[in-house]
Design a protein that fits this description.
This protein is mainly alpha-helical. It has a single domain, classed as Growth Hormone, Chain: A, CATH 1.20.1250. 75% of the residues lie in helices and 0% in strands. α1 crosses α3 and α2 packs antiparallel against α6. The longest helix has 30 residues. The chain is elongated and about 60 Å long.
């Protein structure tokens, strides 16, 4: 994953946050759906079809690559950039704590989901990730090359409870 993060760090200011996050989410979701299809077709005959197992492993690896260049580093960039100075400590704390809490919840429920709904787990996560890509594309403002003053005037600012008067402090 470290190697997949390097291009993002080097090119994020040229490409922008929205395209990187959207393409990464589409790639991760597609990997989830492909894993679901492989699992659904081979759930009872892994011993006879080892190539399917290796294909699923490759999809997990590709998922990690997509995460590594997109949501791994870029989500933290968005959380740090979207807040003006007056609310930045609270916004970053909220973003970081919600990230950790959601990761904890996913880690807790995934084993039970895999046990009870097997490949449906991957379908659910894939669909949610596609929805995340759409959310980023349609609702999250692009923050590349914006100053802190310009952040206040983004179309999505009202949902982040950002000050409209441009007060920083």
């Amino acid at each position: 994953m470290f190697l997949a993060t390097i291009p993002s760090v080097l090119w994020i200011d040229r490409v922008g946050r929205k395209p990187v996050l959207t393409i990464g989410a589409i790639g991760m979701a597609t990997c989830h759906i492909i894993i679901a299809v492989i699992l659904a077709k081979n759930i009872d005959n892994w011993g006879e079809n080892q190539a399917a197992g290796w294909a699923a492993i490759c999809m997990v690896w590709l998922f990690v690559v997509h995460f590594g260049y997109s949501w791994g580093p870029c989500a933290w960039i968005i959380v740090a950039e979207i807040w003006p100075l007056s609310t930045r400590p609270y916004g970053v704390a909220l973003g970081a704590s919600s990230n950790w809490m959601n990761n904890f919840i996913v880690g807790q429920v995934t084993p039970d989901m895999l046990k009870h709904i097997t490949y449906g787990t991957y379908i659910l996560f894939g669909l949610l990730t596609y929805m995340g890509a759409a959310f980023i594309w349609f609702f999250v403002p692009e923050t590349k090359r914006l100053t802190l003053e310009e952040m206040v005037r983004t179309p999505f600012s009202f949902l982040f409870l950002l000050p409209i008067r441009g007060e920083y402090g």
